[in-house]
Design goal:
The structure holds two protein chains of two kinds.
Chain A lengths: L6 E9 L5 H8 L5 E8 L8 H4 L4 E14 L2 E7 L10 H5 L4 E6 L8 H10 L3 E6 L9 H7 L8 E4 L4 H25 L2
Parallel strand pairs in A: 1-4, 1-5, 5-6, 6-7
Antiparallel strand pairs in A: 2-3, 3-4
Chain B lengths: L15 H6 L16 E4 L9 H9 L4 E2 H8 L3 H13 L3 E3 L1 E2 L8 H12 L2
Antiparallel strand pairs in B: 1-2, 1-3
Helix pairs in contact in B: 3-4
The chains are: A alpha/beta, B mainly alpha.
Chain lengths: 191, 120
């Protein structure tokens, strides 16, 4: 494959604050997750809780990301979203060009994932839901979580341990299945 | 991750320097330039470039993404994008393709990505 031109792709890992996004990225990344900052002006802010941020002229959010080098010409990057919903406004830049997304869920704090699910559904971005069993015993089954999140039946819900490469790999492969399934269906539709 | 990021503090002072670096611009003209877009040096002589731009060139002897440039140089992502965009427009860097799920032609690349992840 060395004669191919290099190309890169992006997955986004979304979910509530502290749910384990960076841990998940780190368990499949070949590098320790790197951190980048994006700064924004107050004009861009205002999804919620504006009283707290209105006095600021700028705010900075951190994003952690990792890298999987597939071969010498192909790289997959995994970007974690900033934790809080009120930074949702900057997801447009983050999600632009993404092949798909993983929504990482803590079943004790399902509400934290509503924003991400709504966001990807509204934009037609392929995603899977990964139920992190990181925190002690699993409280709910994937079926219960799918019902509670009112997911469409075709949305896959998997359990994973964000620390465990094997289960994280399974989540990423499920996402590839969704993406490739959709592309093949579209190709067929176009004849 | 133990290093303190340069632009994490919330004081206004921290935001002056990045905007000087880019002459006040916060956007690149190159709309295809995403944080995952990889770039590499073209071999053009970088000796006339000023500090930040020459640092970018120094990093990009092999393909590297805009996000990695931002992280390694500890400059905000938006600033890295503007710098990289300028260096592409001036012929110092060449950008590489990003794989798209909306391009049927990219299905082989996506299958290669999936196979690579399976082999991890």
């Amino acid at each position: 494959m060395s004669n191919n031109n290099p190309a890169s792709a992006k997955f986004v890992v979304a979910g509530g604050f502290g749910v384990g996004k960076t841990t998940l990225v780190g368990s499949v990344s070949e590098i320790d997750p790197l951190r980048t900052e994006a700064s924004m002006t107050a004009a861009s802010i205002g999804v919620d809780d504006t009283s707290q941020v209105q006095t600021k002229t700028t705010t900075t959010v951190a994003m952690d990301f990792g890298r999987i080098t597939i071969d010498d010409s192909l790289v997959l990057y995994l970007f974690g979203t900033p934790g809080q919903d009120r930074f949702g406004f900057m997801w447009d830049d983050l999600v632009e060009g993404a092949l798909g997304a993983v929504v990482l869920v803590d079943s004790r704090r399902l509400a934290d994932s509503f924003f991400a699910i709504d966001y990807f559904e509204a934009r037609g971005i392929p995603f899977v839901v990964a139920l992190n069993t990181f925190n002690a015993e699993q409280h709910h089954t994937p079926e219960e979580v799918a019902a509670a999140l009112q997911l469409r039946p075709e949305v896959k819900v998997l359990t994973c341990d964000a620390r465990d490469r094997r289960t994280v790999k399974a989540v990423l492969l499920a996402l590839f299945d969704v993406i490739l399934g959709r592309m093949l269906a579209e190709a067929e539709h176009l004849g | 991750m133990s290093d303190e990021p340069v632009f994490m503090e919330d004081s206004d002072d921290d935001f002056i320097r990045p905007f000087l670096v880019t002459a006040g611009r916060t956007r690149t003209n190159l709309t295809y330039l995403n944080m995952e877009t990889m770039v590499r040096t073209t071999g053009a002589d970088p000796s006339r470039l000023r500090f930040e731009a020459s640092q970018v060139i120094g990093l990009c002897r092999g393909p590297l993404s805009v996000a990695e440039i931002s992280a390694h140089l500890r400059i905000p992502l938006g600033i890295a994008k503007v710098l990289v965009g300028d260096l592409i427009e001036d012929g110092y860097l060449s950008p590489f393709k990003t794989v798209s799920a909306s391009a049927a032609a990219d299905i082989n690349l996506i299958q290669r990505l999936a196979a690579g992840v399976r082999a991890l």
